[in-house]
Request: fold
Amino acid sequence: APTVDNSAGAGNVPTAGSVKIDGVDSTSALAGSLPAIRLSASTAYGFSIVTWQANNQTVGTVAHGLGVAPDMVVIKNRDSSTNAQWVVGHSGFGFNGQGYLNLNSPFGTNSGSFNNTAPTSTVFTVGTDQTVNLGTNKYIAYCWVEKTGYSKFSSYEGNNTATGPTVTLGWQPALVMIKNADG
Reply:
């Protein structure tokens, strides 16, 4: 885990101890227009945690450290309870809208959270929406990449039968998370 905050600006080699990729300090400049404050990524398990500071609702990009585009990104404001939803971008719905883990609402078409931009192999985009980019608040993102035997990201449509649809994983999951996307 990172032990210090990154004081290097965007596009620079991060401060030693602030960015860990597979447990090792990053010695390469990070992509993104918003510098990571702290970043910890496991490419083997396809999971990263990154913190950054908002830039007053100007579209920006944040490094995730995974080396491939995340299938799911969950973002939370750490400084304010204003617009502090658990914002979700998911490959099954594209990143042209968002869902909320903590609200009983469908995935929307509001493009403000991810700016209608799917993550790349180096960054995810935060848009102008206050749920991901309020003032100079600090945010945290949890990013996942699908890894066989570890994680699977999918969507399905209900079929109104007792047995319902099936999503094949190929292994026994320890956790299944389901969110109604359109109701």
Notes: The longest strand covers residues 36-42. DSSP finds no helices and ten strands in the chain. Residues 74 and 88 are 5 Å apart (CA to CA).
